[in-house]
Design a protein that fits this description.
With about 230 residues, the chain is mostly beta strands. The protein contains 4 helices and 9 strands.
C-alpha cells in the first residue's frame, strides 16, 4: 500500500491516431460484417493531450480528440458524414507497474519488454456537426449544427515502455455522447438502442518529461542490450 500511494510526479505528453466505428441509426439489414460497419459509419481519429501521474498507479489525463466518420451509401438509402471535436478529463488507473510485473516472472523473462495494462474513464464535451443525403439530395438537419453535448469516454489499453522517456500504447475507447444527432438521424435504430456511440482503436506515443530511471529499465532491459549503468 505504501508503494501504491507513493508520489510519482510524472508528466507525459501524448499524441496518436487510429480508426473509429460508429453505432449509428442507419440499419444495415442482412449484409456481411464489413458492410454493416461501412453503413453504420467508420472513419479516423486523432488525439493530443497530457497525463500527470500522481502515484505509480493513478493519473489524470486531459485529452483533445478529433473524429471524422462517414457512412456508406446503400443503393436504396442514404449516407452521412460527421465531424467531432472532444475535450475530456479522465482518471487513469494502471493495473500494475513495470517493476511489479517483472517480479511475477522468471529472471530470464524480466529482461524482456513488459506490457502494462491500464483503464481510463472520465467526462467531457463534444462539439459536432453532421449532414446526410437522401437520393443525392441534402437532408434537413436533425438539430442546429454545430451542436454541443456531454460525453463519457470509457476504455483501456496496454502501455509499452521503450526507453526512460518514450512509451507506446494501444488503446480502445468507447465514447458515449448524450445526443442521438451525430449521424443527423434521431430515429433510435442503432444496435444498442441508445444514443449514437463511437468505438475508437488507436496507437499512441507518450513522451515523459524529465528523466527518472526506473529499476525495471536500468536493471534489466538496458543490461540485456549491453548498456552499463554509469557510476
Amino acid at each position: 500500500m505504501k508503494h501504491v500511494f507513493r508520489e510519482a510526479r510524472k508528466f507525459s505528453l501524448i499524441a496518436g491516431g487510429g480508426i473509429t466505428l460508429m453505432d449509428s441509426d442507419y440499419e444495415a439489414g442482412k449484409v456481411g460484417l464489413i458492410e454493416k460497419i461501412k453503413i453504420n459509419g467508420y472513419g479516423y481519429s486523432g488525439s493530443v493531450g497530457g497525463m500527470y501521474q500522481f502515484t505509480p498507479y493513478v493519473g489524470g489525463l486531459l485529452s483533445l480528440d478529433y473524429i471524422s466518420v462517414r457512412g456508406k451509401r446503400p443503393q436504396e438509402g442514404c449516407s452521412f458524414c460527421s465531424e467531432m471535436v472532444t475535450t475530456s478529463l479522465s482518471a487513469v488507473m494502471l493495473l500494475a507497474t513495470r517493476a511489479s510485473l517483472a517480479r511475477l516472472y522468471s529472471k530470464s523473462f524480466r529482461r524482456g519488454i513488459i506490457l502494462v495494462p491500464y483503464l481510463r474513464g472520465g467526462v467531457g464535451f463534444m462539439s459536432y456537426q453532421a449532414s446526410s443525403y437522401n437520393d443525392e439530395q441534402s437532408a434537413d438537419p436533425a438539430t442546429e449544427y454545430p451542436d454541443l453535448t456531454l460525453v463519457v469516454p470509457l476504455g483501456g489499453g496496454l502501455r509499452l515502455r521503450l526507453t526512460d522517456q518514450i512509451s507506446l500504447a494501444t488503446e480502445a475507447v468507447l465514447t458515449m455522447p448524450f445526443s442521438d444527432y451525430l449521424d443527423n438521424r434521431p430515429s433510435g435504430n442503432n444496435l444498442l438502442k441508445t444514443n449514437d456511440q463511437l468505438l475508437s482503436f488507436s496507437l499512441k506515443g507518450l513522451y515523459h518529461l524529465g528523466h527518472k530511471r526506473s529499476q525495471a529499465v536500468s536493471g534489466s532491459l538496458f543490461k540485456k542490450r549491453g548498456f552499463k549503468k554509469k557510476k
